[in-house]
Amino acid sequence: MRLILLGAPGAGKGTVAKLLTKLDGSVQISTGDILRGAVAAGTELGLKAKAAMNSGGLVSDDLIMGIMAERLQQPDCAKGFLLDGFPRTIPQAEALKILLAKLGIKLDFTVEIDVPRAVILDRLTTRRTCSNSSCQAIYNTKSNPTKVNGICDKCGSPTIQREDETEAAISKRLDTYDAMTAPLVGFYKKEGNLLTVSATDSNVVVKAIQDKLAG
What we know:
single chain, about 220 residues, Rossmann fold, about 50% helix, globular
């Protein structure tokens, strides 16, 4: 499958993508994960992206499109891919359309995961991430706590609240999403390949996607 997953930060795109990868070997491509890895490694890209990410802003289109062009041509994408949180703006969507045509890749469709803002705020302010850059396991103090408070179950490193997951930063990210990314729903609706799923349960979203693929 070749899908774009749209939805506000915390809507469950990453969880849905991970469930879908188990179905047919498609790979999850999250620009957020790629950029956080670059920040942790202290690369040139990471240094450029760090300030924007920590403030809840967006990284430049040039950096993102460069990453995506390279990533989509890697061998593991041959089985399929799930674009998790990309594109984020209309210009990115237009650039992606051109890039995919150039690479001879056809999308199946775009999925919008629609979750209420209050639910997202609660999810993200209670999320904790492993501080070990080679692990980065994600937990939630309410729904998925660590066995030992503040300690990663997988590697034993401390878990932290990311700087971009404080209430102030999340509110800014949601405002940014509403202003710049939400219009993508209209863009893909006009393209005629949008599936909107209003659900807080990731399994419900996956089932809707499977039904659409089967249909």
